[in-house]
Amino acid sequence: MRALLIVVGLALLAGGIWAIFGHGSYQDTDTLVQIGSAKVTATHDKAIPQWMGIAGIVVGAVLTLGGFLKKG
After folding, report:
1. Beta-bridge mates of residue 26
2. Is 28 within the bounds of a domain?
3. CA-to-CA dists, residue 47 to 1, 19, 44, 50, 53, angstroms
4. Above pLDDT 90, what percent of the chain?
5. Which of 6, 14, 23, 71 has a CA-to-CA distance to 55 between 20 and 30 Å?
6. Which of 18, 5, 1, 19 lies closest to 65 in space, CA to CA?
């Protein structure tokens, strides 16, 4: 259990840092026009919001410290 907390915490910490420095993004697809079965779509790259990176860093740090400080 202790090792799992540490591993998950470090993964969240690394993901949060990665998102903060602007490397995190995802694709969003919008339907522009749809006529019958034919449709025109557009795909946009969007950055992961900075607050999600900060939340990942905070939660990852708490989980990692909890794993290191847990007895047993």
Report:
1. 46
2. no
3. 33, 8, 10, 9, 11
4. 65
5. 71
6. 5
In a domain, residue 45? The reply is no
Q: What percentage of the chain reaches a pLDDT higher than 70?
A: 99
| Backbone dihedral region for residue 33 (phi beyond 0: left; psi -120 to 50: alpha; all else: beta) | beta
**Total domains present in the chain:** 1
Helix-then-strand count for the chain, H and E: 2, 2
Sheet strands (E) in the chain: 25-35, 38-47
What's the domain range around 58?
6-19+52-72
Q: Please tell me the pTM assigned to this model.
A: 0.72
